[in-house]
Amino acid sequence: MASLDRNAPRITKPRFAALALIMMAAAVSGCAGSPDGMTTSAISDDYRQRHPIVLTEKEHHVDIPVVAGDRRITTGARDTVRGFVQDYRAHASGTIEVLAPSGSANSPGVSAFRRQIRQELVASGIPSARIVDSYYQTSGPGDAAPIRLRFLATTATTNACGQWPEDLSANAFDNQNYYNFGCATQNNLAAQVANPTDLIAPRAMTPIDADQRSKVIDSYRSGTTPTSTATIGGFSGS
Question: Where are the residues of the annotated region Disordered (predicted)?
């Protein structure tokens, strides 16, 4: 039976507790030094990088159906042209191309419609020099092809959704989102932004109304309501 050396160093309880605290502190400091500053594993991939919103040159167009027997532009077609002009004013300042079908069965109606569409564009404020007449070839003489209006403009867009490059079950336990995750959100944001250049930099601020600001501050200090009236949604209030 081996004898114990009474002079050998022993680890007492206080020293063992101190050693445990040092090991815990080292573990915590290792977590704090992670790149994302989180103490738990986080999703490393970002849907904004997989589906980035970019500004590109894109065609805006609208097709106006033409019946062979029509000789005057309809009310619905006229409203469509006016809506197209509003879209053009909001997004572009270049040329508008009026493409008429060539060799289609509705050629008589196309000729009358095209002339009246051009007149409607000019009446809506589009300079005649910015309207370009062109043609496109139809697949056959029996086609009742429409007249197409189009222009090019800077547009916010992202890649197409619905892509599944790998099986979802392959990364089911990796704590990572799938490739198509966030694509619909990015597409909706790109489609809803009114001014695509807002995604690059903010617009300049409008000048302040010093007179109105002084009235509001004076009213706040005196505890009274402003004397000026404002109309909001058809209702005026003081």
Answer: 218-238
